[in-house]
Specification:
Elements (H helix, E strand, L loop, with lengths): L1 E7 L14 E2 L2 E2 H11 L5 E5 L10 E4 L7 H11 L6 E6 L7 H9 L4 E6 L2 E9 L3 H7 L7 H6 L5 E4 L12 H18 L3
Helix pairs in contact: 2-4
Length: about 200
């Protein structure tokens, strides 16, 4: 069983509001992230919250009291909250709304114990971590570093999975980023609807 883990604890200092609460395409980023993981086949989906406490449907919410210390503590809190029957987890970030469920499915289908999505040959999110690596990943997840430190320390374990056709890993850090990505999203919808 592959679980899903959405990291959504940050305060969004440059954005001016916690990212989990931000609306994108008429949907909160936290709900969009849960849907991404669920549609990608992850069960259960765990959301790590911190700066904002919100009700999230379709997911197990975990509060990270140390969210101010950075993404590392949220990743550790999320890994610790996964059920014992989860053999692996796909970790996604709340502020990447253009990543699609195909990326999650591609990571799961890779059969790898440690896999990272690539776009244009560059590593980004989401990532897949097998249970055998949970402790090692958690140990090196410090400050604003998530699984990247473990992958850097163990390059031979990492499988890169090309996800160019499954979205765009651009993230939302500022109001300008939000406006830019909403524009991209609207253009994609217009193309799909033949406008």
């Amino acid at each position: 069983m592959i679980a899903g883990l959405l990291l959504a604890a940050g305060e969004g200092a440059r954005l001016g509001t916690p990212k989990a609460l931000v609306e994108f395409g008429g949907e909160r980023l936290v709900d969009r992230g849960v849907r991404l993981l669920a549609e990608g086949g992850c069960r259960p989906v765990v959301v790590v919250l911190g700066a904002a406490t919100v009700q999230v449907r379709g997911a197990v919410s975990v509060r990270n009291p140390d969210w101010r210390t950075g993404m590392g503590s949220s990743l550790r809190a999320g890994l610790a909250a996964l059920p014992p029957e989860a053999t692996a987890v796909v970790v996604a970030l709340v502020d990447q709304p253009l990543v699609r469920a195909g990326a999650v499915r591609a990571l799961a289908a890779s059969g790898a114990g440690l896999a990272v999505a690539t776009y244009g040959g560059r590593r980004a999110n989401p990532v897949l971590i097998a249970r055998e690596h949970f402790a090692g990943v958690a140990e090196l997840a410090v400050g604003d570093v998530g699984a990247r430190a473990f992958m850097k320390a163990h390059p031979g374990l990492v499988t890169e999975v090309a996800c160019d056709e499954h979205g765009d890993p651009a993230d939302i850090d500022t109001p300008q980023d939000l406006e830019l990505l909403e524009g991209r999203w609207k253009r994609v919808l217009d193309l799909l609807e033949g406008r």
